[in-house]
Amino acid sequence: MNEMALSVSLRRAGYCIAVASLLATIPTLAADATRGGQLALRWCAACHVVRSDQKSAVIEAPPFETIARRPDFDAAKVALFLQNPHPKMPDMGLSRDATADIAAYIATLK
Asked: How far apart, in whole angstroms, are the C-alpha atoms of residue 10 and residue 88?
C-alpha cells in the first residue's frame, strides 16, 4: 500500500471511530411504562389481567404479573413477541414503540 492510500485509510478509520463515539453518547429513547400501562388497559385487558385491581380475564391468557415474574422474562423479547403474536392472540397492529411500552409496563410488575 502506498503512502497516500495508507493516509486515506487512516483518515477513514479515524472518521469511523469519531462517528461511533458520537453515536455512543446519544441517549437511546427509553420505553414508557406509564404509556404501556394505558395501552395494556386498552388492548390487552379483555384477555389478560393487566392490573391487580382487574376482576376478570380469559383463563388461558396469563396475567401480566405472571409473565413479569418468569425467570426468563426479557422485555425486549416480549416486545418482539407482541409484534408477531401467536395464533390465539389477535394481531393488533401495534407499533414498535407501543410494544416496547407495553413490555416496559409488564417489567414493572415483577
From this structure: 55
